[in-house]
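so my prof wants the structure for this chain in the tokens format not the other one, which i didnt know existed until like an hour ago. anyway here's the sequence
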Amino acid sequence: MRNYTTDSAEATARLISLALLADGGLDNSELDSLEKHSILDQLGITPDTFDRVMHEFCNDVLQSARSPNIGQIEIDPEVITHLLGDIRSPALQKKGAARDARYRQCRLVHQRCRSGPRISGHEPLGT
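here's what i got, hopefully its the right format
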């Protein structure tokens, strides 16, 4: 994974990218929701920065993640912890609704993605 400055727009955009891709794909409704709720604006991320970081994140994941099965990619828990740790500013943590809850959700998403069984296609069911 490439390094971004702690608390930067890029670090925040990468965390959003991780959350959006946690179910194995990027859906247009998820991007529409970001725009509808002005999430990127609230976090000080320009659309161009978000697009660039999303592409960089996808490239980094493809180069560094494990692929236990064809079409599946796993990100090591240490990488997830590192990405979550890139946001340390209390001000950034408080921006938006329930920022700390988002951290917990990202960690839960990661745990669920590693647990199975699967309920449909690419969506895992947490235990």
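also thought this was worth mentioning. Residues 47-64 form the longest helix (18 residues).
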